[in-house]
Amino acid sequence: MARITYREAISKALWEEMERDPSVFILGEEVGVWGGTYAVTRGFYDHFGPKRVLDTPIAEATIVGAAIGAALTGLRPVAELMTINFAFAAMDHIVNQAAKLRYMFGGQFTLPLVIRTVSGGGRQLAATHSQTPDVVFAHFPGLKVVAPGTPEDAKGLLKAAIRSNDPILFIEHATLYPVRGEVPDEEYLIPIGKSKVQRPGRDVTIVTYSKMLELSMKAAEQLAEEGIEVEIVDLRSLRPLDIEPVIQSFKKTNRAVIVEEGWRSYGVGAEVAARLYEEAFDYVDAPIRRIAQKETPLPYNRTLEQMALPQVEEIVRAVKEVL
Amino acid sequence: MDKQLYLDLYYQMVLIRLVEEASAQLYQQGKIGGFLHLYIGQEAVSTGIISARQPKDRVITAYRDHGVAINVGIPAKLVLAELLGKATGVSKGKGGSMHLADVKRNFWGGHAIVGAHLPIAVGLALGDQYQGSDAVTICMFGDGATNIGFFHEALNLSKVWNLPVLWVCENNQYGMGTAVERASAVKEIRQKALGYNMPNSRVNGMDVLEVRQATLEVLDQIRAGGGPHLMEVVTYRYRGHSMGDPERYRQAEEVKRWQENDPIGIYRRHLETRSIATPEELDEVERRAEQEVTEAVRFAEESPEPPPEALFEDIYAE
Predict the structure, then answer these.
(1) Fold topology of A196-322
(2) Smallest CA–CA distance from A105 into chain B, residue
(3) Is residue B307 a part of any domain in this protein?
(4) CATH level 2 (architecture), domain A2-183
(5) Does pLDDT of A168 surpass 90?
(6) Residues of A classed as catalytic
(7) Which residues belong to CATH 3.40.50.920 in chain A?
(8) Closest Cα in chain B to A142
(9) Residues of chain A whose C-beta is under 8 A from some C-beta in B?
(10) A92 vs B113: CB contact, 8 Å cut-off?
(11) Which of B120, B128, B309 to probe the A interface (max A CBs under 10 A)?
(12) Which of B37, B232, B309, B310 sits at 20 to 30 Å (Cα–Cα) from B204?
């Protein structure tokens, strides 16, 4: 096991898959000569060349559209959208094309396509560059949405995504890139659509994913000092949603707090809570709590921005409230 | 060009028109749901273009796609079965009129979001270029699609990457009910290629042989590495934008004027006056087409509905 960053894990996954399979290539804004705005593809252009590392104009719809077309010819494109906020400019191609073509043409089309993008606030980029709209994309059948919270998961899930024959939106988190974690030395894949218990516990179930896993872990450590043991279930994929491990955990703890960075309304918390009420109603010992972003566009000012984003103390408080 | 090909082009154009007339009837009988966009009047465009392609050349078009479907060789019965939503349809009854495709005939749809398939065509051509093939992607769209951003992004990138794409604008004078000059800053769509330093041409879309010849020449240039080309094909649709269009935006005289230059009539006169085919031979071609459509309608009507389990099939590959 090596301790590497989330950024390195994603970079290694891409590199290994490109070495392994000549049909894998990258396209996006500044992925080549620049080396990636988040430095994920640094060194790729020199090693793999301009044919396999394609710098594109700032034209998100066509980045995704071209990736769809190339996937239809049997290639395995990995399109990069610099941030998920720019994915709105490619919304038609993500939700109307990538998610629909296979079904609409009676299974004739296969789209082995990965769209990598970056979500999350907390860097004072103001309202249009700080969103966590992951659930918006998870709404659409036909698309798969993956959002890893650790370097190990990021690497294994990205490799699996590249080898998958379905269109996958792979959402990285902007502030997780420098975070380190243990990653196996040998090759491994992590199946898409499987939740994982990241921390075992008996008292309260926290359901979360991506960056909020980090905050939830910190909350769990504080709570442990007071003798409260939380179990953390990391969804890792928002679609397909693997709810079974969540239900299993809830049947043990009978209490749940759901933590997401996006807005509360119609969010991950709403979905997971509804599933728990529907499928495990007899096990509910306390109202299920949701921690999420305040319902405002995210402000630039650092203090205001942090007020809007979920905090460790909020998670700690919510866990105590459901106990 | 050998005689058989002349007759075959005639057969395809007549077949498209008869399929469309049958579709209009089936729609009025309530057997076709959703939208129905007829290709009547534009038959020479897709027939000329598709006749010039090689099997390896990919074809992708917009939602007015019945003509292309017939031209690439999908039997009329599988087109009509799709229009009727049957399990035997080319898209298993899940796509309908606007979403015909047949991957084994290198036909990549039938796309109903205006302009959205142009970026996809960039990717199809990129795939061929990446894999060292000299295939060309033929991407067809209406005049209305040239005013949306997708068109401009796609044309620009196709030129930047020197991709093998033939962009075909079927200028039928109206985007739904809005005349070209009310929606486009330039009157001739071909002018839009100038902003992308792209070769371009303008062709009479009512003459199948002119369309075919122009396409053959341009495909050669693209195949030789010449990069993308924008071909504007001037044509006209006789029927409304879709069924139920009140057509308040044009006069009946205008439609009549264009109908005097009917692409099937022009072609038939050409074949007769040049003594390429006799009236009897052409009548025989028409009879064959009528027969195919009669059988196709019967096949489509008798075909089974998709089974309930089809609802959840083909959402994902795995």
Answers:
(1) Rossmann fold (3.40.50)
(2) B91
(3) no
(4) 3-Layer(aba) Sandwich (3.40)
(5) yes
(6) 60, 129
(7) 196-322
(8) B315
(9) 25, 51, 54, 56-57, 59, 61-62, 64-75, 77, 92-93, 96-97, 101-112, 141-142, 144, 164-166
(10) yes
(11) B120
(12) B37
Q: Which residue range forms the structural domain that includes residue B153?
A: 3-301
Q: For the residues B237-242, what does the mean pLDDT come to? A: 92
Q: Note the pLDDT tens digit of each residue in A67-101.
A: 999 999 999 999 999 999 999 999 999 999 999 99
Residue pLDDT, tens place only, B109-168: 999 999 999 999 999 999 999 999 999 999 999 999 999 999 999 999 999 999 999 999
What average pLDDT score do residues B242-268 get? 93
- Please judge whether A165 and B157 are an interchain contact, meaning their C-beta atoms are less than 8 angstroms apart: no
B99 close to A (CB below 8 A): yes
Judge whether residue B317 has pLDDT over 90. Answer: yes
pLDDT at B244: 86
Mutate to test the interface with B, among A48, A54, A62 (most CBs of B within 10 A): A62
Select the residue of A68, A105, A110 nearest B123 (Cβ to Cβ): A68
| Assigned domain for B62 exists | yes
Specify if B318 maps to a domain: no
Looking at chain B, the whole-number percentage of residues with pLDDT higher than 70 is 100
In the predicted structure, residue B296 carries a pLDDT above the cut 90 = yes
The number of domains in chain B is 1
In a domain, B314, yes or no: no
CATH number reported for the structural domain that contains residue B15 in this entry = 3.40.50.970
Here the ipTM equals: 0.97
Separation in Å, CA of A74 to nearest CA in chain B? 8
A167 to A16, A111, A234, B129, B206: CA distances (angstroms): 20, 6, 22, 22, 41
